[in-house]
Amino acid sequence: MTDLALSYVHGAADEPLLGQTIGQALDRAAAAWGHRPALISRGQGVRWTWRELRDRADALAAGLLALGLRRGDRIGIWSLNRAEWTLTQFAAAKAGLILVTINPAYRLSELEFALNKVGCAALVTATAFKTSDYIGMVNALAPELAASVPGRLSAARLPDLRSVVQMGGPPVPGAIAFDEVPARGGEAERAELRELAGQLQFDDAANIQFTSGTTGSPKGVTLTHHNILNNGYFVGRAMRLTEADRICIPVPLYHCFGMVMGNLAAVTHGCAMVYPGEGFDPLATLETVQAEGCTALYGVPTMFIAELDHPEFAHFNLSTLRTGIMAGAPCPIEVMRRVVERMNMREVTIAYGMTETSPVSFQSATDDPLNRRVSTVGRVHPHLEVKIVDTEGRVVPRGQSGELCTRGYSVMLSYWGDAGKTAEVVDGARWMHTGDLATLDEDGYCNIVGRIKDLVIRGGENLAPREIEEFLFRHPKIQEVQVFGVADQRFGEELCAWIRLREGETMSEDEVRAFCQGQIAHQKVPRYIQFVDEFPMTVTGKAQKFIMRRVVEEQLGLKRAETA
Ligand code: AMP
């Protein structure tokens, strides 16, 4: 067998990697596209040019230094999508701080864990949004805040935290108003900032992101300037972004989809970042695309489904759209086709990746044949290597499925403070083992066929839920479906399907079974079929199958047979 027949690809590229820090990229954007729009946050009435954004980031960076923060310190950010988020991202990078992006859905124990795990010295927090009382939760964890001198907090449960910076709202006692931070930076801090610019290295850590909660315990993925700036740049290049583009970003900033594929693609190509609102809202997204003439739109599959199915969808003029990205979870072919046809996103791409790889490793190209663009995650990204291996670590032949491993500039430094966990996923040759199951075809196009952890093992046979989901999704009454394993005394595991029907439809379990009959192997027909109104999802569009499994097992009293 020749090498060509093995599942190994390298993204040979003419264009070199960027050797810059994020701060240098911002300075370059301000010099090249100074008067062009950089950031539009509709709900806040913010419209800044690249020069304005750079000036504001410099001022905030000086203010952060004045709070006593030093190169390498961790600064947490806990908020939905607001202009201050992005300002903090760039200011932290300029001040040499490591931005710790905290999921706005986190609650007390998760916040405490995240802040302490990486030893945050400062926290920039929102005040409140809908039912989330962010500042109330900070106060609950650190009741000492109210009586503390701003910037000199000493709290028993958050021992490293010194400063709480509060955005949007009158600051509570002990906290510092976000808008007042820049004014704290004087000439000394400005000078320090200029000096830092010459010292910071692109291999310095710039960001810690906690991985999404699809599997349980969060880990702090530590990424450098070089990791994420380059990934943002090459993601943008795959969409052929230029300074004429305006990216609508309804995906969360705390996740790499927003902050890397959105913000860092924008800063390296001079595009505008357009935020439709703090949290995802399909109507606000459609309105924003129309009102701001967006040329690119991002989303996880469920967001695009919500936009396409919105009762007012047909009223919007989306003719400015050209491209965008669907990513984060398996992208149904049918939804991709509707995005191309009904949203005018003729150059839409699919991206695949994970936080630990900055995130993107595969992305379709705008000129890939439509069929490939909707049915695969595209080809390997420039400069990266990917191999698909079997359980023994051997590269499998093309077309055979195995674990996808990625190597190259994009692989994280480490899980913060967790050398053991890092070594479990990044091997001695610097391959990141993703835990995703994939195939590579002869031309290098990749399909994600499942997750190793999702595999259902029924009576010793491996069943891939993804394959069954794709099949059931073809039924016209079915809007969304999730297939997962539940405990079974006899087989170890049995399949269960949760189905959400299209508006106004009804369906019986027997109808689902009849649809499968003769079409898929009998062991792939789910033993349990339940109709639900919604799925437990993370904000980044990932179905939390471990929760579904628990619910069904409790409801049906299912137990695993005892084993040795
Ligand atoms: P995160 O670290 O939160 O970005 O999640 C990464 C995981 O999301 C990957 O390991 C995949 O399981 C999944 N994922 C991301 N993009 C895709 C995609 N295009 N198709 C299928 N799964 C995806």
Automatic annotation (TrEMBL):
Catalytic reaction list: 3-(methylsulfanyl)propanoate + ATP + CoA = 3-(methylsulfanyl)propanoyl-CoA + AMP + diphosphate
Gene3D superfamilies for this protein: 3.30.300.30, N-terminal domain of ligase-like
Residue span(s) of domain AMP-binding enzyme C-terminal: 467-542
Keywords attached to this entry: Ligase
Biological process terms in GO annotation: fatty acid metabolic process
Gene Ontology MF annotations: medium-chain fatty acid-CoA ligase activity
EC number: 6.2.1.44
Annotated Pfam families: AMP-binding (PF00501), AMP-binding_C (PF13193)
PROSITE patterns reported for this sequence: AMP_BINDING
InterPro entries: AMP-bd_C (IPR025110), AMP-bd_C_sf (IPR045851), AMP-binding_CS (IPR020845), AMP-dep_synth/lig_dom (IPR000873), ANL_N_sf (IPR042099)
Entry keyword Ligase: yes
Family of this protein: Belongs to the ATP-dependent AMP-binding enzyme family.
Protein name: 3-methylmercaptopropionyl-CoA ligase
Organism expressing this protein natively: Dankookia rubra
